[in-house]
Structure formats: C-alpha cells, structure tokens
C-alpha cells in the first residue's frame, strides 16, 4: 500500500528522477512532469495528495502553476521549491496558498518531513470538510423523516437528552436509523462544533480495534512504526459513537469500562495516561441482556452504558412512516439521477405498505433507489418493486394481530390517497365519518400528517 500520491513538477530532469526514486523508496506513488502543460493534464486525470512544484518552470512560474492546480484540486497542499537566496518569492508563494517551501539544495530527509506534515494537513482538511457536510446536509435533524407516534416519542427523548452529556444506548434492528439518531444527538448537543468520531466495533480484529480506540506508542507491536493517536483522543470534547458494541471483544470491554470509570486511558504500549472528556453513544442490534446472560458481554459495562436507552422500532411496526420515507428517497434519487419521477402509483404504494421490511429503512431506501433507476415513466409502478411478501409466505401471526395490521395499513393507504381528507377516506371505506375517526385514533394516526406540505 502506498502512503499517498505525489505530483512533482520541475524543469530539471535529473532532479526529477532523483526525487522520484527517493520518494518511491519511501513508499509514495510518484508522477512527474517536466512542463506545466503535462502537470495540468495529469492533475485533471487523477487526484494527487500533494504537489511539489519548482519555482522556476519553463513557461510560467511555480506560483502561477500552483494556482492553476488549486483550481482543479483546491485542497491539495503544494510545496514550492526555490533556489537559494530567493526568500522573497518563497514568502510570496506562501501568501498565495502554498503549504510550505524548500530551498534548493535540500536533503531528502527534510523533503520527507514536509511531505508527511502536508499529508497530515490534508487529512485534517478533508475531515473538516466531512464534518461540515455532516452539519449541513445529510444529518440535519430535519432530514430524519417520520410520522409515527413511536418515532415522534424518540425525537422528544432525543431533544430532552441531547444536551445532558450522559451515555446513550441506542438499540434496534439493522437499518432502523441508529447511526442517524446518534449523529442527531451530537448535532443537538453543546459538543456539536467538536468531532463526532464513529467506529464500528464489529469491523476490526481485536488488536486493531484496541489501537484504533486508544492509539499506540511507537514500537508497541510489530507494525507500530510510529505513535498513533486513538479515536478517544480525537473525540475529546466531542462525541464518540461505538457502533455494534455487542461485538466488542471482552478484553476491550474491560478497558472501555475503566475509561468510563476513570475518564482517562493508556494508549497501547503507553505509560502515561491520557485524560479524555467525550460523550459516549453506543448502538447495537443485538439483545445485549442476552449477551450478558451468555457471558459474551460484561454485566458491569452493560450497566455503565445503559444510562439512557433509546429504542428504534422496526419499520413494520410503524408502517405509517413508509409513504413519507418512500417519497423522501424518491426525491433524493430522482434528483441525483436527474430523472423526472413524480411519485408512486397507488398500487406501487400498496406493495410498499404490504412488505415486512426485515432490513428496515435501509432496505426501503435501496428498493426505491433501484426503482428510480429502472423507472421509465412519470410514476413508479408496482412491477419495479419486489413482491417478497406474497400471501403465500405471510408470516403466521394470531388472527387478531393480522387483522389489526391489515386494518392499519389499509387506513394509512386511504389517508395517503385522499391526502388526509377524512370525509373522503371514510366514504371510500364505506364508513361513517365518526367511526373512521375512531379508527384513526385507535392507530394513533393524525389526518394533518397526511396533508402534503
Ligand atoms: N427516519 C429516517 N429518515 C430518513 N432516512 C432514514 C431514517 N431512518 C433511517 N434512514 C436511512 O436509512 C439508512 C440506514 O440507517 P442507519 O445507518 O442509521 O441504520 P442503523 O440502525 O445504524 O443500521 P445498522 O444496524 O445496519 O448499522 C441510512 O441511509 C439512513 O440515512
Ligand atoms: Mg449502523
């Protein structure tokens, strides 16, 4: 694996070759250009992590080229090479946005150091951009779609607890929106301007997980070639989201417990403790109480993290969320795929309402993405949707429950079709208005929620 892609531009062919060799032996991927034109061409074709540009080029000066490269890739740090004694132009290059400069002749060690620092900075910039994106579009609280009473209650809970700083324990099936809620809590808290770090405890083997979380000292284990900061350090003053905590190995559970008790920790191989003030949010789709009983999860840790539990119900228990979610995803994908799709046919919506959605909101999202991609009409038709839920494989449940489930879906469907017009919906159902109102109440449905905004 290479450590980064570097573009070097210099009119001195020998120097170019020499630097390429040096950097390649330090495990960088290097492209070179003798003339400006070639550098611009290469920068358009691929994204470089860093560019090293000589001040004195054939057709233009290094600063002009740097500005052109920045038009293509604004975040790319540029290191300028200057001749001995031209400190003025070096300063000028810095004011025009160069990351740093090196005076010729320079030694390989100095160059490598500058590159490493510049790469750090680039990582930071992309992290900042990622966080900005996180704040503005995707995870804005207003982008969490819901109509169901159960989810409204979750929202109420989130609003009440966001500012407290207590540990939050989010549980619910896969795809129910646990990560979304975790981010919303962070953004609603006083820590919102600091980092939100998330880590999936199931995705990494034991040793890597430990060093990801707590960092390590240089030489702590084979492969630890330099000291590394852990996520707990990065999340200081911010929020740390431990996803799938049910999959955390027992040895690390013990370490985590100590961090929560003492508010400080030791990096792998480290002797000095690191103080940390971070809000912890954990999520799991496992039944952790079960895991505790089976000895796979520490009971003391369970009680430590089970401070504010938030339960996200599966989509099949809040079917009234299906139409607005489907509409939400339809708009998103129609927009990004530049297709003029206006909605769903009533039959298509009916199919969506009938499914049990074992993969919950994520599965619905994927289904809509597929349908939007395939659709050639103004409205999404039923043939583009999976019919996994035919009568034949209907999960057997008590008749009373089956009837109630059907009744609720049926009413939601009517309310969707009439856009919340109760008289019209009652007429279609062949019911008296008052009786229909009682049914709405029975299933916690509000006509106002179905009016198109
Ligand atoms: N109420 C909602 N409104 C809008 N989008 C939602 C909602 N709930 C979930 N999503 C979307 O569904 C997808 C799955 O959500 P998320 O990743 O938060 O689920 P999860 O519970 O963490 O799942 P897993 O257990 O599989 O990690 C995401 O793309 C998310 O944006
Ligand atoms: Mg998740």
Walk me through the topology:
Blueprint (H helix, E strand, L loop, with lengths): L4 E5 L3 H13 L3 E5 L2 H10 L4 E5 L7 H11 L5 E5 L4 H9 L4 E4 L4 H29 L12 H13 L6 E5 L5 H11 L7 E5 L5 H9 L16 H4 L4 E5 L6 H13 L1 E2 L8 E2 L3 E6 L3 H6 L5 H7 L2 E5 L9 H15 L6 E2 L1 H9 L5 H15 L4 E2 L18 H19 L4 H8 L3 H10 L11
Parallel strand pairs: 1-2, 1-3, 3-4, 4-5, 6-11, 6-12, 7-8, 8-11, 13-14
Antiparallel strand pairs: 9-10
Helix pairs in contact: 2-3, 13-15, 16-17, 17-18
The protein binds adenosine-5'-triphosphate (ATP) and magnesium ion.
Structure commentary:
With 453 residues, this protein is α/β, with parallel strands linked by helices. It folds into four domains: 5-132, Rossmann fold, CATH 3.40.50; 145-313, 3-Layer(aba) Sandwich (Rossmann fold); 317-388, Helicase, Ruva Protein, domain 3; 396-453, Orthogonal Bundle (Arc Repressor Mutant, subunit A), CATH 1.10.10. It has 18 helices and 14 strands. It has helices at residues 13-25, 36-45, 62-72, 87-95, 108-136, 149-161, 178-188, 206-214, 231-234, 250-262, 288-293, 299-305, 322-336, 346-354, 360-374, 399-417, 422-429, 433-442; strands at residues 5-9, 29-33, 50-54, 78-82, 100-103, 168-172, 196-200, 239-243, 264-265, 274-275, 279-284, 308-312, 343-344, 379-380. The protein has a five-stranded parallel sheet with strand order 2-1-3-4-5, with helices on both faces. The radius of gyration is 29 Å and the shape is globular. It binds adenosine-5'-triphosphate (ATP) and magnesium ion. Adenosine-5'-triphosphate binds next to helix 7, helix 13 and helix 15.
């Amino acid at each position: 694996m290479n450590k980064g892609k570097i573009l070097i531009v210099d009119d001195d062919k020998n120097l170019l070759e020499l630097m390429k060799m040096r950097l390649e032996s330090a495990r960088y991927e290097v492209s070179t250009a003798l003339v400006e034109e070639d550098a611009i061409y290469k920068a358009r074709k691929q994204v470089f992590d860093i560019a090293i540009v000589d001040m004195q080029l054939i057709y233009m000066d290094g600063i002009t080229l740097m500005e052109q490269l920045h038009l293509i890739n604004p975040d790319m740090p540029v290191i300028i090479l200057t001749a001995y004694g031209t400190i003025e132009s070096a300063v000028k290059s810095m004011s025009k946005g160069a990351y740093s400069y090196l005076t010729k002749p320079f030694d390989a060690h100095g160059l490598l150091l500058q590159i490493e620092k510049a790469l750090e900075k680039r990582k930071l910039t992309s992290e900042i951009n990622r966080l900005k994106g996180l704040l503005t579009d995707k995870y804005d609280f207003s982008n969490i779609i819901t109509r169901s009473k159960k989810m409204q209650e979750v929202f109420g809970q989130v609003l009440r607890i966001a500012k407290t700083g207590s540990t939050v324990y989010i549980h619910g099936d896969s795809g129910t929106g646990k990560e979304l809620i975790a981010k919303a809590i962070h953004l609603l808290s006083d820590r919102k301007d600091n980092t939100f770090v998330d880590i999936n405890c199931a995705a990494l083997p034991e040793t890597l997980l430990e060093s990801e979380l707590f960092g390590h000292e240089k030489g702590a284990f084979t492969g630890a070639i330099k000291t590394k900061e852990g996520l707990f350090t990065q999340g200081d003053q911010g929020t740390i989201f431990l996803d799938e905590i049910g999959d955390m190995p027992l040895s690390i559970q013990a370490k985590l417990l100590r961090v929560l008790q003492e508010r400080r920790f030791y990096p792998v191989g480290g002797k000095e403790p690191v103080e940390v003030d971070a809000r912890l949010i954990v999520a799991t789709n496992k039944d952790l109480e079960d895991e505790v009983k089976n000895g796979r999860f520490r009971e003391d840790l369970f009680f430590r993290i089970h401070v504010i539990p938030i339960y996200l119900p599966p989509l099949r228990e809040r079917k009234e969320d299906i139409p607005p979610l489907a509409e939400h995803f339809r708009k998103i994908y129609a927009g990004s795929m530049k297709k003029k799709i206006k909605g769903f046919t009533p039959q298509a919506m009916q199919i969506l309402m009938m499914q049990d959605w074992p993969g919950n909101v994520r599965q619905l999202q994927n289904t809509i993405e597929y349908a939007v991609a395939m659709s050639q009409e103004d409205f999404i038709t039923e043939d583009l949707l999976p019919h996994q839920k035919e009568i034949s494989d209907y999960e057997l449940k008590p008749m009373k429950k089956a009837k109630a489930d059907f009744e609720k879906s049926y009413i939601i469907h009517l309310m969707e079709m009439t856009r919340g017009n109760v008289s019209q919906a009652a007429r279609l159902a062949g019911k008296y208005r008052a009786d229909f109102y009682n049914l709405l109440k029975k299933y916690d449905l509000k006509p106002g929620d179905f009016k198109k905004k």
